[in-house]
Design brief:
- This protein is α+β, with helices and mostly antiparallel strands and about 230 residues long.
- The protein has a domain at about 20-85 and about 130-210: NADH Oxidase (3-Layer(aba) Sandwich), CATH 3.40.109.10.
- Helix content is about 40%, strand content about 15%.
- It contains eight helices and four strands, in the order H-H-E-H-H-H-E-H-E-H-E-H.
- It has helices at about 10-15, 30-40, 60-75, 95-110, 115-125, 145-165, 180-190, 220-225; strands spanning about 55-60, 135-140, 170-175, 195-205.
- The protein has a four-stranded antiparallel beta sheet with strand order 1-2-4-3, with helices on both faces.
- The radius of gyration is 18 Å and the shape is globular.
């Protein structure tokens, strides 16, 4: 039990290994007390000197619809407002190859030719509908915090994604919302002194959708680990 709520007892190992970014959700509602339980459990994330720098905005119902509409309109007008630089100005290998590979695999599942720029842009806009999920989460942090707190918030965000699976829910972390940071700030009344770190879609996966078959390839420990004895 978690906060008096039943969950499926998924092991930590299986919750981590089975996680994937979901890009189509059902319309089934997520109860407020389940969201509360997930956030309470996620708050056990480690943070330097227990500062717990994360802040969360939960968006549902009419607020979700208004935000999606407003960001869609800004995107179609090309009115980006980057919250921060997420990608390096020069993308070197192996990062560029990994980025291209996952993109092409997703386009294939969508049935989009990799050279169809218009269809690719439309697919990108699905982010701003939360891929159909009924719940949007936005994680923010006071901008006076230093780089260590970005690590802390990353662990908090990861906890949300893993704990959600214990309740039969899935997620998609969506830094794409930060491309329209000014709009999100305005629509959700996020103070200017808070940085928008990421959005996230939360809901029940539509497992009939082909795009949800995508499981990204990962480097092996042999590739990214050095042992020192």
């Amino acid at each position: 039990m978690t906060g008096g709520l039943a969950h499926n007892g998924l092991s930590a190992f299986d919750a981590v290994v089975g996680r994937r970014s979901i890009r189509r959700f059902t319309e089934a509602a997520v109860a407020d007390d389940v969201i509360h339980a997930i956030l309470a459990a996620a708050s056990r994330a480690a943070s330097g000197m227990n500062m717990q720098p994360w802040l969360v905005h939960v968006v549902t119902g009419d607020a979700r619809a208004r935000l999606s509409h407003t960001v869609h309109a800004a995107a179609r007008r090309g009115e980006t407002s980057l919250e921060y630089a997420y990608l390096p100005s020069i993308m070197k290998e192996p990062y560029q190859a990994r980025r291209r590979k996952i993109g092409f695999e997703l386009y294939e599942l969508y049935g989009i030719d990799r050279h169809d720029i218009v269809a690719r842009e439309e697919a990108m806009l699905r982010n701003y509908d939360f891929f159909g999920a009924p719940v949007g989460l936005f994680i923010t942090m006071d901008q006076v915090m230093a780089q260590g707190s970005w690590l802390d918030c990353g662990m908090f965000i990861q906890n949300i994604m893993i704990v959600s699976r214990a309740f039969g829910l899935e997620t998609c972390p969506q830094q794409a919302w930060c491309d329209y940071g000014a709009v999100v700030h305005r629509e959700l009344a996020i103070p200017e002194e808070h940085v928008l770190l990421s959005g996230m879609a939360l809901g029940y996966a539509d497992w009939s959708a082909r795009e949800n078959e995508l499981v990204s390839e990962r480097a092996t420990p042999e590739e990214f680990t050095r042992w020192h004895r």
